[in-house]
Give the backbone structure.
Amino acid sequence: MSGSHKRKFELVLPRVEALTTLAELTAQAAAGNLVIGGQVVPLDDFMSLKIGIKHLGASSMLKVQLKYPAVGMDALPTPAGVDREDAAREASLAGAPEAAAAEAGEPGAVEPEGRPRYKGLKKRMKHFFKAMVVSLRAGQAPDRDVVAAFIADSRLMTSFPGKGDAFYPAYDAEVDRLEEAVAAGDIAAMTASVAALDRMKKECHSRHA
């Protein structure tokens, strides 16, 4: 991810102390901090944490790696495969959510209970999401109708079982934060939420095609 960064720590200690130190780090992580070689490392907002041990004869090397997400504009995705013409089209969709919806799917493609079919719903969400990204990359708040449509579709999406259920609670919570950011007119918070939703989407899609 563009703009993300890592922190790495290595500590050499007697082999007999390695597993005890690992257990101590695990307990510390539950409390929200790690203490590595006397240095306190807060665990605020990290994306991933890796702890490994490599035995070196009578000694062991303890390795800790934390990855943090990018922040601000750097955290936003770049719409893949979108050239200048497509970027201009997506920007225009930010002011015309009805056009995006019409282009994204077949009007009659609905489930028996009245929900849109999942594939059509995802295509429509992609259009709205790209429109939000284009606006935020321009330093502007996305069109409220576009965001409202994306939020409504997001809540529909998480009503489909078997499509990434384990991710739904965190996704729904982030959608709520996006809605609050829009209501407050907070572009920085909108940017953070859209970036977080993009990370969740990629993680979910890596497990659910």
Summary: The two ends are 20 Å apart (CA to CA).
